[in-house]
Design a protein that fits this description.
The chain is built from seven helices and ten strands. The protein is globular. The chain has a single domain, classed as P-loop containing nucleotide triphosphate hydrolases (Rossmann fold), CATH 3.40.50.300. It has about 220 residues and is an alpha/beta fold. Helix 3 packs across helix 4. Strands 6-7-8-3-9-10 form a six-stranded mixed β-sheet, with helices on both faces.
């Protein structure tokens, strides 16, 4: 069974008399433990697609299924559990809480879920991203690349089935970007996470098993590694 399936998905936004279709008739199946990159220019629908895949938004028509269940059919409580336990998020601008230490940022998802030994799991993920020595530091004391690695550790601390990364290298220099991409690739192979990444960079998309080229809300082509 695919980890994620989109069946004839379209998304239309309406503002008064204005109506804009951001995604049109998207169909795609994503297997567990793979990396899929959605590649295209700004405004092509990449972020909207990730929001649908992460159950943060819902299609106007069609279905988004995670592990065979349509997200639009889930109750609010089921959606909360889904987002908290099965999906991790990484953003272009890190979204770390500035008043929390690195360790506290990483363990936060587990604390919110009431998981015991949250600090132990957070330290394990920090070791994996190579930032154990920064556990007591605060975000303002880190470089952009380090902050993104902390964000990846936080996204994976709950061992989610799906990791959604929206332009994860868009705010990084080349070296830091390569480190982040290597971690995303390893997250799939080591932890079995299904990685969904939006990017405008062909170099970033090169790590993917599947590259989905988007233009004006439509799939132009799908390339397999």
């Amino acid at each position: 069974m695919p980890r994620l399936e989109l069946r004839a998905v379209s998304r239309r936004y309406t503002d008064g008399e204005q109506s804009v279709e951001v995604l049109h008739d998207i169909s795609l199946a994503v297997e567990p433990g793979t990396v899929t990159a959605f590649l295209g220019r700004s405004g092509c629908g990449k972020t909207t697609l990730l929001n649908l895949a992460g159950a943060m938004d819902f299609p106007t028509s069609g279905e988004v299924l995670i592990d065979g269940r349509a997200t639009s059919a889930l109750s609010e409580s089921e959606l909360t559990v889904l987002r908290r336990t099965k999906i991790g998020f990484v953003f272009q601008f890190f979204q770390l809480l500035p008043t929390l230490s690195v360790l506290e940022n990483v363990e936060l998802p587990l604390l919110l879920a009431g998981v015991s030994k949250a600090a132990e799991a957070a330290r394990d993920r920090l070791r994996w991203v190579g930032l154990s020595e920064k556990a007591a530091a605060f975000p303002y004391q880190l470089s952009g690349g380090q902050m993104q690695r902390v964000a990846i550790a936080r996204a994976l601390v709950s061992s989610p089935e799906i990791l959604i990364a929206d332009e994860p290298t868009g705010n990084l220099d080349t070296v830091s970007g390569e480190q982040v991409l290597a971690l995303l690739r390893e997250a799939a192979s080591r932890f079995g996470a299904t990685i969904l990444m939006a990017t405008h960079s062909a170099e970033a998309a090169a790590i993917a098993d599947t590259r989905v080229n988007l233009r004006d809300g439509r799939i132009q082509s799908i390339e397999q590694r």
